[in-house]
């Protein structure tokens, strides 16, 4: 353990200044959404409407969205497509609800992140030709074959809190407006019609997934926490030099501060992917996925889960393609599915 | 919020003791502990299950208040940033599953316990350790406790995770409490206070309803110590006999206002209403498991006869 720490802290003599310089100009976070998004949250103040009017508004909303029975696979017109290893399936929006310790069959303890798959519904599908013309599509598919885009929404909410333009995105499909939207890049054979529900059964036990999230926001942090600097001595006469950065340049070479010099600043709240996390347990009743390892972001934050892109951990057999639907004959699926490497809690104690 | 009609005397006691400094109210000499009385008729076990009526006349099952001392790991970590009701519920289900396989008995710091673990490096593949519980902590599946013993003049402490599947058996050889919640000072005490024979037999309790508090005052070795014990308000230690300057410094550093800080204690504990909900959820399963074990034990003793 000590060996690895020493390697990490050894100062590299030759920095790739070119790479640091270009990356330091990349804007890493914004507080506003892209300009092509419609205004989402209701901007008007809390109107003081009477209780009768409030009741009327609620009735209107209920009338509008009633008669929404659970959607079966047979109701949706899904083209029968074949899975091949190059297929990119849809992802899923989930909430990271915490971390639970589980044990493997040899007694080794593993940390598993509990991900709660929210009520995902497909909002619309954008075919490849159309998506390649959009702002993001042109950038993404500049030198590649274009792929389609699935817009998925999660966490239905009261339409009152959103603007009309935002609710109209869902009106065409007849869904309650969702608090969270996400785009998943899919191959055309994995396209899904609007209103398709996505559940925890979309994934397979033992598969590897990539989880995207925004890391914990630490705010404005000093150089010791942000970059792992050692700072200065705590005593021995050190005057006001305990957690400072120290020197920021040589004075000779280029005679200025290089762009990308590590300094205090905002830390966290960045897009990150944790790749190749193994799914060790799925609870179909509560729509919960247990993933071995940790995901970016704090507890109770929203993450997106995709099938992994890591070449050695990709699918070799067909997963539920294009997504999972409960069996038509009404038989309930197994509620709690465990990976073979994990020790099930109800089973006898392990004897090594 | 539970309805007003559910305010029973034990709930008032719960709310009162909730504000005291420790979870255990040490001003009382004993804590009543009601076991499940199995009657031959198998009728209402009114001793443990408090069925209360509310305004509409439906019975609401409320677990007895002792549950928060017997099963403290069912309460989640109070830190609000990491709390999620669904995850806690799932964790409790897993804990009950594990408890259905192995008996995790009621114990407190100061109880002498024996734990059998499956160990690949042991000659018999099982390692048994006897010791006094000096500290317990963690919540949910992470719950742990530390056992201490002195083996061949060497002090040994082992941290066991209560829900680890490698644990084969947890026995409580002597169920009692001490005057402090944490007995870490035994590390600086004379070794005789931490020595327990490894082949100790389980002791039979004189009174099943009450968990005795052992008022033993431990003698510490001369300084240097691992911690500044004079600053910690220990009840279970004999007079430390230190020079006055230690006590003066301890007074300077002390925070006597903390015992009046209601928000501090509120943030460190789970609210009483939530505790009741949690224990009401797990109570029936725990009682069923307890019953099954009792019957198995009775059948076992009958077979022997």
Automatic annotation (TrEMBL), chain A:
Any GO molecular function? structural constituent of ribosome
Q: Name one GO cellular component term.
A: mitochondrial large ribosomal subunit
Pfam families named among the record's database cross-references: Ribosomal_L3
The record's annotation in InterPro entries points to: Ribosomal_uL3 (IPR000597), Ribosomal_uL3_bac/org-type (IPR019927), Transl_B-barrel_sf (IPR009000)
Q: Mind telling me which Gene3D superfamilies this protein's record contains?
A: Translation factors
Keyword terms: Ribonucleoprotein, Ribosomal protein
**GO biological process entries:** translation
Q: Does the keyword Manganese apply?
A: no
Query: NCBIfam families this protein is in?
Result: L3_bact
The family note in this entry says: Belongs to the universal ribosomal protein uL3 family.
User: What name does UniProt use for this protein?
Assistant: Large ribosomal subunit protein uL3m
Q: Which organism is it from?
A: Daphnia similis
From TrEMBL, chain B:
As one GO molecular function, the record gives: structural constituent of ribosome
Q: What is its main location?
A: mitochondrion
> Which Pfam families does the UniProt record give?
Ribosomal_L19
Span of the signal peptide:
none
Q: Which InterPro entries match?
A: Ribosomal_bL19, Ribosomal_bL19_sf, Translation_prot_SH3-like_sf
UniProt subcellular location: Mitochondrion
UniProt biased composition (Polar residues): 47-57
Keywords, A to Z, come to: Mitochondrion, Ribonucleoprotein, Ribosomal protein, Transit peptide
**Does the record carry RNA-binding as a key word?**
no
Q: Which Gene3D superfamilies match?
A: 2.30.30.790
Q: Which GO terms describe its biological process?
A: translation
Q: What name does this protein carry?
A: Large ribosomal subunit protein bL19m
């Amino acid at each position: 353990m000590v060996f690895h720490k020493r390697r990490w802290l050894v100062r590299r003599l030759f920095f790739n200044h070119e790479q640091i310089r270009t990356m330091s100009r990349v804007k890493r976070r914004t507080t506003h959404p892209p300009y092509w998004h419609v205004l989402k949250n209701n901007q008007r103040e809390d109107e003081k409407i009477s209780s009768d009017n409030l009741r009327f508004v609620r009735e209107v909303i209920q009338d509008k969205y009633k008669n929404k029975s659970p959607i079966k696979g047979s109701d949706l017109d899904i083209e029968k497509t074949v899975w091949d290893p190059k297929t990119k399936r849809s992802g899923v929006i989930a909430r990271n609800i915490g971390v639970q310790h589980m044990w493997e069959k040899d007694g080794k303890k593993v940390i598993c992140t509990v991900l709660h798959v929210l009520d995902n519904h497909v909002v619309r599908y954008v075919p490849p030709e159309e998506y390649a013309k959009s702002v993001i599509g042109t950038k993404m598919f500049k030198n590649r074959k274009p792929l389609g885009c699935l817009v998925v929404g999660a966490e239905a909410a009261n339409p009152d809190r959103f603007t009309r333009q935002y609710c109209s995105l869902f009106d065409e499909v007849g869904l309650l407006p969702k608090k969270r939207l996400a785009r998943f890049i899919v191959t055309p054979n994995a396209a899904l019609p609007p209103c398709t529900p996505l559940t925890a059964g979309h994934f397979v036990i033992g598969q590897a997934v990539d989880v995207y999230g925004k890391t914990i926001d630490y705010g404005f942090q000093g150089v010791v926490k942000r970059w792992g600097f050692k700072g200065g001595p705590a005593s021995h006469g050190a005057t006001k030099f305990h957690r400072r950065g120290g020197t920021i340049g040589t004075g000779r070479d280029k005679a200025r501060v290089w762009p990308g010099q590590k300094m205090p600043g905002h830390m966290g709240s960045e897009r990150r992917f944790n790749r190749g996390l193994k799914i060790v347990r799925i609870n179909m009743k509560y729509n919960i996925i247990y993933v071995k390892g940790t995901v970016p972001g704090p507890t109770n934050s929203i993450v997106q889960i995709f099938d992994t892109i890591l070449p050695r951990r990709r699918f070799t057999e067909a997963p539920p393609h294009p997504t999972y639907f409960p069996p038509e004959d009404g038989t309930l699926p197994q509620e709690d599915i465990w990976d073979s490497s994990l020790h099930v809690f109800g089973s006898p104690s392990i004897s090594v | 919020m539970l309805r007003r009609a559910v305010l029973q005397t034990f709930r008032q006691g719960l709310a009162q003791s909730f504000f005291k400094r420790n979870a255990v109210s040490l001003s009382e000499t004993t804590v009543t502990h009601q076991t499940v009385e199995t009657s031959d008729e198998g009728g209402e076990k009114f001793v443990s299950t408090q069925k209360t009526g509310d305004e509409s006349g439906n019975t609401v099952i409320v677990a007895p208040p002792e549950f928060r001392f017997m099963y403290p790991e069912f309460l989640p970590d109070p830190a609000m940033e990491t709390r999620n009701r669904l995850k806690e519920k799932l964790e409790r289900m897993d804990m009950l599953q594990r408890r259905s396989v192995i008996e995790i008995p009621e114990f407190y710091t100061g109880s002498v316990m024996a734990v059998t673990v499956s160990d690949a490096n042991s000659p018999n593949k099982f390692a048994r350790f006897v010791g006094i519980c000096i500290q317990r902590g963690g919540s949910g599946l992470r719950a742990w406790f530390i056992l201490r013993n002195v083996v061949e003049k060497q002090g040994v402490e082992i941290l066991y995770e209560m829900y680890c599947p490698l644990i084969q058996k947890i026995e409580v050889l002597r169920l009692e409490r001490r005057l402090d919640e944490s007995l870490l000072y035994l590390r600086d005490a004379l070794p005789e206070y931490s020595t327990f024979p490894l082949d100790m037999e389980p002791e039979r309790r004189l009174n099943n309803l009450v968990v005795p508090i052992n008022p033993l005052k431990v003698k510490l070795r001369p300084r240097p110590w691992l911690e500044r014990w004079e600053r910690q308000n220990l009840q279970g230690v004999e007079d430390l006999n230190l020079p006055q300057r230690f006590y003066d410094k301890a007074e300077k550093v002390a925070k006597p206002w903390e015992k009046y800080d209601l928000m501090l204690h509120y943030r460190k504990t789970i609210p009483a209403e939530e505790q009741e909900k949690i224990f009401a959820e797990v109570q029936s399963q725990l009682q069923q498991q307890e019953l099954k074990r009792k019957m198995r034990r009775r059948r076992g003793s009958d077979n022997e006869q």
